[in-house]
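Need a sequence for this fold. Nothing fancy.
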């Protein structure tokens, strides 16, 4: 490794924490995709905004690319550093900076874990409602970079809805203070929303002002067993009409089997082909009775074959683990992941066609489905058999993803619902965005990152 760029970096920013140990380069240079060999120049761990700005300015002068890094729980290769980039890890910038009780805002640094944000909000009697299984390891900066969704989008929306303000260090090293927590602000373009979901290609988020909400009302958690794929949306429609849904998540028998093998507990004696974990408002006896009535109505129609109702918070967590534990349970197979979205109204037809497509395309591979049915988001995990080498597996999955992208385009959907485009999906961006849109995106990127140092190769070349 040529140490001269690092020597210049050390000289430019005295006191900057740098890691160059091979184990650190491997650890920080990859995300959960595990598909690229990490090869970063080094790992920089700034402690404040001034150091982030200095790193970006050095990168422009030295011609070194930067890869912003949070918890690296991404699934699209957005945080991969495989071409000698400098990884900029925000893990040292992990504090709560302030709380405003009147505006109900929590100001945080980007490296703080989502779970720590939940705890900080709860300490003030409020809630930050974005939530998903990786809450203990993902960071707020990474959530913002991908506009992460999760299990309660049906009630609360994506990360975007909960960002009142951002501070962004652009690819030119300038510090932008975006929106400043205002509820109303019609003073030109809202660059805050350009930064959200930009996958680190426009700059580095260095501070976020988060909106907080009232804690959700007491909820009831149910696990439902379904006989067939095509009744999913019927059950969803019935529950949505009768209940205040907070979450509605589906998984297949295959996904459940992997979680059980990984240490989960099955509340049923019988194996069923499809399952739903749902959570709904149950603050009083009326709402609790409405949940049972919805269950009974669907059972009478033959749409639900069995069910389990959590009688405690511990039981609710056990039921949720059956859904949230899938990603961890299948990780050893290094799955190829598709994260797709269509309008909820288009979901029934898309589900039928996608299931048929994947069944024909992957006769020899195991496919594990799960997803957020209530917001039109499906996760498709194709498991790599031990006897199939990486190149063959990736080639076939890439080909089928192209077919899936075409299907999504016909249904007006998106090839990435909440994981971003990164390296994995950039060949299929055109199925979701038109040529004029992509050209505009390139122009925005050039304006904020004129020398192309911010996460190059991600989203588009």
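Here you go.
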């Amino acid at each position: 490794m040529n140490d001269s760029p690092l020597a210049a970096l050390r000289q430019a920013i005295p006191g900057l924490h740098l890691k160059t140990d091979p184990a650190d380069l491997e650890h920080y240079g990859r995300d959960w995709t595990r598909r690229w060999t990490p090869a970063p120049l080094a790992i920089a761990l700034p402690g404040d905004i001034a150091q982030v700005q200095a790193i970006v300015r050095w990168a422009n002068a030295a011609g070194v690319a930067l890869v912003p890094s949070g918890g690296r729980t991404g699934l699209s290769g957005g945080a991969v550093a495989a071409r000698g980039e400098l990884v900029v890890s925000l893990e040292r910038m992990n504090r709560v900076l302030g709380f405003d009780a009147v505006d109900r805002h929590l100001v945080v640094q980007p490296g703080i874990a989502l779970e720590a944000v939940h705890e900080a909000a709860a300490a003030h009697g409020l809630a930050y409602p974005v939530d998903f299984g990786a809450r203990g390891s993902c960071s707020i900066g990474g959530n913002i970079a991908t506009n992460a969704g999760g299990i309660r989008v049906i009630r609360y929306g994506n990360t975007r809805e909960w960002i009142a303000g951002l501070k962004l260090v652009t690819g030119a090293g300038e510090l932008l203070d975006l929106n400043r927590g205002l509820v109303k602000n019609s003073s030109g373009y809202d660059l805050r929303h350009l930064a959200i979901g930009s996958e680190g290609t426009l700059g580095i988020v260095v501070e976020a002002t988060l909106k907080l909400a009232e804690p959700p009302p007491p909820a009831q958690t149910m696990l439902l067993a379904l006989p067939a794929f095509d009744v999913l949306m019927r059950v969803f429609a019935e529950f949505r009409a009768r209940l205040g849904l907070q979450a509605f998540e589906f998984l297949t028998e295959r996904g459940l089997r992997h979680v059980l093998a990984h240490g989960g507990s099955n509340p049923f004696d019988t194996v069923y082909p499809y399952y739903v974990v749902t959570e709904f408002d149950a603050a009083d006896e009326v709402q609790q009775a409405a949940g049972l009535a919805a269950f009974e109505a669907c059972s009478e129609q033959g749409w639900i074959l069995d069910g389990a109702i959590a009688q405690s918070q511990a039981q609710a967590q056990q039921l949720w683990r059956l859904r949230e534990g899938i990603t961890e349970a299948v990780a050893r197979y290094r799955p190829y992941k598709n994260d797709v979205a269509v309008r909820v109204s288009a979901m029934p037809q898309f589900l039928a066609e996608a299931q048929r497509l994947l069944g024909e395309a992957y006769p020899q591979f195991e496919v594990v489905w799960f997803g957020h049915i209530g917001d039109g988001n499906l996760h498709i995990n194709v498991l790599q058999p031990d006897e199939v080498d990486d190149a063959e597996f990736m080639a076939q999955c890439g080909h089928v993803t192209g077919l899936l992208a075409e299907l999504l385009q016909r249904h007006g959907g998106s090839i990435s619902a909440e994981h971003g485009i990164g390296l994995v999906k950039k060949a299929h961006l055109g199925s979701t965005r038109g040529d004029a849109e992509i050209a505009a995106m390139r122009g925005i990127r050039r304006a904020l990152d004129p020398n192309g140092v911010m996460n190059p190769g991600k989203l588009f070349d």
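For context: DSSP finds 15 helices and 16 strands in the chain.
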